[in-house]
Amino acid sequence: xxxxxxxxxxxxxxxxxxxxxxxxxxxxxxxxxxxxxxxxxxxxxxxxxxxxxxxxxxxxxxxxxxxxxxxxxxxxxxxxxxxxxxxxxxxxxxxxxxxxxxxxxxxxxxxxxxxxxxxxxxxxxxxxxxxxxxxxxxxxxxxxxxxxxxxxxxxxxxxxxxxxxxxxxxxxxxxxxxxxxxxxxxxxxxxxxxxxxxxxxxxxxxxxxxxxxxxxxxxxxxxxxxxxxxxxxxxxxxxxxxxxxxxxxxxxxxxxxxxxxxxxxxxxxxxxxxxxxxxxxxxxxxxxxxxxxxxxxxxxxxxxxxxxxxxxxxxxxxxxxxxxxxxxxx
Amino acid sequence: xxxxxxxxxxxxxxxxxxxxxxxxxxxxxxxxxxxxxxxxxxxxxxxxxxxxxxxxxxxxxxxxxxxxxxxxxxxxxxxxxxxxxxxxxxxxxxxxxxxxxxxxxxxxxxxxxxxxxxxxxxxxxxxxxxxxxxxxxxxxxxxxxxxxxxxxxxxxxxxxxxxxxxxxxxxxxxxxxxxxxxxxxxxxxxxxxxxxxxxxxxxxxxxxxxxxxxxxxxxxxxxxxxxxxxx
Amino acid sequence: xxxxxxxxxxxxxxxxxxxxxxxxxxxxxxxxxxxxxxxxxxxxxxxxxxxxxxxxxxxxxxxxxxxxxxxxxxxxxxxxxxxxxxxxxxxxxxxxxxxxxxxxxxxxxxxxxxxxxxxxxxxxxxxxxxxxxxxxxxxxxxxxxxxxxxxxxxxxxxxxxxxxxxxxxxxxxxxxxxxxxxxxxxxxxxxxxxxxxxxxxxxxxxxxxxxxxxxxxxxxxxxxxxxxxxxxxxxxxxxxxxxxxxxxxxxxxxxxxxxxxxxxxxxxxxxxxxxxxxxxxxxxxxxxxxxxxxxxxxxxxxxxxx
Lengths: 330, 231, 306
Description:
The structure holds 3 protein chains of 3 kinds.
Chain A: E1 7-11, H1 15-23, E2 28-31, H2 49-61, E3 65-70, H3 80-92, E4 96-99, H4 102-111, E5 117-119, H5 128-138, E6 142-144, H6 151-161, E7 164-172, H7 183-188, H8 192-195, E8 204-209, E9 212-217, E10 220-226, E11 241-243, E12 246-248, E13 256-258, H9 263-268, E14 273-276, H10 283-302, E15 320-321
Chain B: H1 8-17, H2 20-37, H3 39-47, E1 51-57, E2 64-69, E3 72-78, E4 89-93, H4 95-102, H5 110-113, E5 117-121, H6 123-133, H7 140-146, H8 152-180, H9 182-189, H10 192-223
Parallel strand pairs in B: 1-4
Antiparallel strand pairs in B: 1-2, 2-3, 4-5
Helix pairs in contact in B: 7-8
Chain C: H1 2-8, E1 10-13, H2 22-35, E2 40-43, H3 52-56, H4 59-68, E3 72-76, H5 84-95, E4 99-102, H6 105-111, E5 116-118, H7 127-135, E6 138-142, H8 149-156, E7 163-176, H9 181-185, E8 204-208, E9 213-218, E10 221-229, H10 234-240, E11 244-247, H11 254-265, H12 271-282, E12 287-288
Parallel strand pairs in C: 1-2, 1-11, 2-3, 3-4, 4-5, 5-6, 6-7, 7-11, 10-12
Antiparallel strand pairs in C: 7-10, 8-9, 9-10
């Protein structure tokens, strides 16, 4: 296949999405088991062991890869589920596991040295020294960079480490250093780091207030929007707060990252793989975003310039950004 | 394979005119049909926590209750208009949006930023249902038309014709809306005012930053003598 | 047995997370040296590297003063390292002749296994991670603020020689970022920040749109609005095997705060009495302890009364 091109990595929240992604042109998919061992632990989502085995077999028959995210942090005394997840990913024939916790990395490196290890964005490794640590200690082959670096910084990291670099190309923008954000558990008592769900739906409520809707997480009001106004899923980092006498999105606007128009720059920066966020989203979303990126990546390879597809209808709040990739985001 | 569109006006029309007992029977028949076509869906629904979700189409005179989870077989029933018992959650929207939801075309995130869809009550119940439906390839078009038995072909043809007319209209509307989009017209010609607008925007941003800086400087000058114990 | 533990229970002064003027910061550490009944003092900048140069010149005299007062001095390092100059600073800190608290994994790479402390910004949530860092030179681990009692118990149990430290007073840091929210809230950006965080010695208050106090903005970090307070839990923590108890500097009389915690650890004050004396020192900021109980972090649980 197109050997030197960027690898297009698609989310797969379930077996149907895995098939949709591969049929739409994904080179690889990432997915997780239906428990708290991964950062998208939502009801009805993800794979059981049999589905994982079938998913890997299907992907391999189409020449695609399957990466299994086991990227949460086991609470003390409860590492068994995470160890089982790694054993099961190895048994299913997964092409790699995506890990974040030092204890889990240590287990995987010792127990399954031949199972490829990627460093999850949840490990928040944003500089060459950190990345080298995970490479030296656990034999990590690829790092998923946090969504907080500019293209120049990505290039610097790629050059300094010589590692495979995976970056986000589309989807939700995470303004916080991931894997160590306790805002959601501060409001709900459930930890994204160990339970795998930021702002779990069980704690999200909406209250109508005249022409407005209040969105709440636990007992905390996260936003007040006019009915029909674009708003993101209510997470604490995309909420409206009042500071310095002004109400506003003090962390991040309800907006989606879309790097479709800067793919040549990312390739030049030394990026290996381009990741699309959104295992919690529909197979229709997966198919549409993957095929838009497939077309754009193929165009990058052939050097032709063409206008890219409009994905704004799929974006949070209906708006898009280059995020941290371009200067000025900070 | 992409599922075809079940025309919402037809569904709306049929469901508005049908007397409740006919509708109830039709729902039962469709449910049995879907159970045969999608056994895995029913298995997955049964595995969830037990929930009752009320579905309230805004453009229909009926409400429905969807019960699933708790290791029992999922079912849908027509709600008596006088029945006030609340469900765990409630989904309101027009038939068009609800059909898209049922066929997995609206995703977990979009649930919360799709206009015309209102979720109340236990949001987790709705997310669980949405995620479970998304695991299946549901083609209501095929499921409904196959219920017509020997009349399936004519029914399909009728539905397809209605659907096609509707798609064409929708396509024309979308093209029109596209043509109004600011960025597209700007890209096409990039008239002088665009440059001027951008220059003014940049200048405004610079001025705003300068004002903010001056304000902070003033605050810092005042605040330097402040007691750090004052919070 | 509890008396044995009481003797070894160490009180520590965590790194100053807010941006105080160099003079206020220097005087604060002088008071820590002269008056605070703490065993260890963590100095160094954790939140923002742009703040570092302000205090650079004062550091040597502060460290000398603390050391001659018999305190263990620890150099805390940045929680989020991205810039080449920050990497350079981490390398220098790792090579310097002071105990280092690592808050980004970058620091572990620079330390090459030399003895160090794992700070609360490196996730050690389970025994696997704990044993790995201990094997590679960590002699103390400061647990993440989110760690519940059930986890602390497992981690402090069978920890061997490894010391375990827990935050028992101060705002809890809930997230760190590349962006400076303090600058953003003031209409500025990180690159043009004017050091606006210096305006708020106890952080900048952020409320919900309905007016409830909820968060504290501190430069690139976000903190709890309330002070995390584990006074009633000190005994339980000590029984679990926690060795070090951290006070995080806030713009209140930290000498009095330290005395109250020391007296409670020594059994001279009952937790209830200590809380009654602490409240007037810290008003009007509320208290939180939800993380400890595995509940909503911002909640205050009175169950210890039972």
